[in-house]
Every structure is written in C-alpha cells, then in structure tokens.
Design goal:
Length: 420
C-alpha cells in the first residue's frame, strides 16, 4: 500500500476566529476571502491535494454555511469516491455527548469513529486558517524515519511575536521535543539565539493507534481543556517519542529566500498578508505552476476597464482584479478587487481590499480599507482617510488604522448620505 493511502487528514475549521472580527461575524475564519479569488482554507486543501493526500475530513462548527458551500462547489471534483478518495465536511456529530467541541483535541476525539472507519496508519491534523505551502508527505516520511509517536511542524519566530500567541517548544540536538509551553509569557529561546524560538504551526502527524489512545485518556481528565497544544502534547513529552519538523526553506514549497507561513488571525495581519500580493515581488507566489493553489472559480466574465475620454479612464495599477469586475472610469492602485466588483466613474481605491460584489459609487474615495462582500459605497463617500471619523461612524478601525466596512455598516453609510 502506498504511504499516502495510509493517511487520513483532519482539517480543523471550526474556530470562531474572534480576533478577525468583523470579517468573521457572518462566516468561519477559513472561509474569509484571501487574495481576491481564494478563501483561506484553499491553501491548506491545496497543500493536501499537491501532496497526494486525498482522504480528508474537514471539521466545522461555527457559521459554516459559506465554507460548506465553497468546498462542495470548488473541491469535490478533485476526489473520486470509487477510488477511496474523499473530502467530507463533518459538522459536530455529538456521538459522545451533547456538547460542542471543547478544544482541538476534543474535536478529533468526537470524530474518532469516522476516522477509524478508514483504518489509517497515520493521522495528519491541520489548521484550516493559515497561509503557506507545504508538502505534508515529506513531513510524514520524516515522522516515520524518526520512529516518532507524534511529529509537530515548527517555525522559527521572534520571541516577542510568539509571546501569548503560539505554542513554543524546546528540542534537543536531534529535534526531539523535550519541553512545550502553550502561549507562554516568556517563550523558551533557541540555544545560541535569544531572539528566536520554535513555534508550533498547528500541524501534527500522529500514529493512528497512539492518537486514539491519547485522545481517550485526555477525555477522562476533568481538568483538561482538551486541546492539543495546551493539554495533549505537554502530557506525552516525557513518555513518548515527540519530534519537531522544522519548516525551513527545504520544506517550504513557496521556494523563496525565507520560509513563508502566516497566521492571518487579526485584521492587521490579514491586511498585511494581502497587501504583500500586490507588491512587485511578493513573498507569496500565487503564480507557481509547480504548486498551484486551487479554489472555486465562478462562471463570471473577464474583468473590464472602460475608457470614455482622458478624464474618465478605468485603470488598475499594481493591483489584483478578479473575474466579473468593471472599472468604469475609476482609478485602482495597490488594491485587490474581488469578483463582480464595480468601480464607477471618477472613484478612487487605494491600498484596499474589496471582497466581492462591491459597488463603489461615483467620486467615492477609499483608502487603507477592507470592504466586505456585497457592500455599496455611496457616491462621493470617503472611507479610510480619517480613522477617527470612521470610528465615530461606528465602523471597525484596527490598531494600525485599517477601516473595515461590512454589509451591516451599509445602512449607516446610506443614512449618512441621506443627511448630507
């Protein structure tokens, strides 16, 4: 049997994503658009497909409708059930009790029956809300070569960045994990480099039988939060073979100078990762044919730019413009336009992210903003030029001054226009 046929992949896609609100107010974090044409989960699923792993369970929970629809429309066609391939969306089954998932380990524990039915030798556990490119099969081969019970994907990050954000581990010279702290106040530094530490990427390879035993053991602990990083991993380090798999240049299929991995968990981190894509030489390569990022592409017409006269010329500079967009005499600079967005005459959009089906009225100006799907910006409106004014209007403004407009905010926009 081929190695990839012995692996079941579990993608955890049920978190609330509260730090990314208001973008997650009506959708799960993995379903948030990224780079115009994609959803965040597309990167994890593309890694699975490019790695040859085609037995995938996506565990959902909060506000999963758009995520469910996206996977069904965009991903089911890549899998053949008759060949033992599948991508199944699994909402909470409540087979064990009536509660929602209490943590990452509990989410997998409550689906042990579904995983066991496939008789896997290895279980790969992934988060569905990170942006990166990785061949998981290499990590599984590393896991086998180390005779490990568990292998954890790790990334070198600055200590101040890891503080209270990531699980941080200590390893010996053979990359065996000898210490683990979940979101510590003072992360353990790397030997010889006090500024860096090893952070967990939320990627785990388990021997299947070992995983089942440990999940059942954790479920009986009344004091446990039933989380992999907070409970399961720390409890097994001293009695099991736990290894770290470094995510360095050789493991990164993005193939740039520095390994690329992003947790777009806040509005500012999300905005920065998107703005990288419109730079001259972005850190994340979306155009690599050797490691393609797949998604659902709707049947929309090509983007269109209207030129009526020198004063009304549709232009997009250093920008990403998706299918169905019309730039009708407006100017777009260093921005991302999602599908079916319309920029009307004399409007200006700068350093902004517009999801999909956004309509920007004539003479409107948008700067350093994120405009959610379906929002209409009234003619002449200015967004993002005065963060204090935007906050007084009731819009969300991030610590770095990024204004976010959601469909619920459209009512306030129209009321403000009516009172002018």
């Amino acid at each position: 049997m081929r190695l990839k046929d012995e692996v079941v992949t579990v993608v955890l896609a049920g978190g609330k994503g509260s730090r990314l609100e208001p973008l997650t107010r009506d959708r799960a974090k993995p379903a948030v658009p990224f780079g115009g044409a994609y959803r965040i989960i597309d990167f994890t699923l593309s890694n699975c497909l490019n790695s040859g792993l085609k037995k995938i369970l996506v565990l959902t929970q909060h506000k999963a409708l758009s995520l469910d629809r996206h996977i069904n429309m965009g991903w089911s066609r890549y899998f053949c059930r008759e060949l033992g391939e599948f991508i199944d969306i699994v909402p909470p089954q409540q087979r064990i009790d009536d509660s929602w998932y209490q943590g990452t380990a509990d989410a997998v524990y409550q689906n042990i029956y579904t995983i066991e039915k496939e008789h896997p030798r290895y279980v790969l556990i992934l988060a569905g809300d990170h942006i990166y490119k990785m061949n998981y099969l290499k990590m599984i081969e590393y896991h086998i070569g180390q005779h490990a019970d568990v292998t954890i994907g790790v990334l070198r990050v600055r200590r101040e960045e890891a503080r209270r954000r990531f699980g941080v581990m200590e390893v010996d010279r053979n990359n065996r994990v000898i210490g683990f702290e979940e979101k510590p106040e003072e992360p353990i530094p790397l030997p010889g480099n006090p500024e860096l530490c090893l952070a967990s990427m939320g990627i785990y390879v388990f021997n299947a039988r070992f995983l089942f035993e440990e999940l059942c053991r954790d479920a009986t602990r009344r004091t446990s939060r039933h989380d992999f990083g907070g409970d399961v991993i720390p409890s097994i380090i001293s009695r099991s073979r736990v290894f770290a798999y470094p995510f360095v240049e050789d493991a990164d299929e993005n193939r740039k100078k520095d390994a690329y991995w992003r947790d777009v968990g806040t509005v500012d981190a999300y905005y920065e990762a998107n703005m990288d894509l419109v730079s001259v030489d972005p850190q994340l390569d979306l155009y690599d044919e050797l490691w393609p990022i797949r998604t659902y592409h709707p049947n929309f017409p090509p983007p269109k730019f209207v030129f009526a006269d020198p004063d009304r010329c549709g232009r997009a500079l250093d920008s990403i413009v998706c299918l169905g967009c019309i730039v009708s005499g407006g100017l777009v600079q260093r921005s991302i336009l999602g599908p079916k967005t319309r920029i009307n005459s004399y409007a200006e959009v700068t350093e902004s992210i517009l999801f999909g089906e956004v309509n920007v009225g004539r003479y409107a100006k948008i700067r350093r903003a994120i405009i959610d799907k379906g929002v209409s910006i009234p003619p002449g409106m200015e967004i993002g030029f005065d963060p204090e004014l935007d906050a007084r209007r009731g819009f969300y403004v991030s610590p770095e001054g990024i204004t976010v407009i959601t469909p619920a905010d459209s009512i306030e926009l129209m009321e403000e226009l009516a009172h002018k």
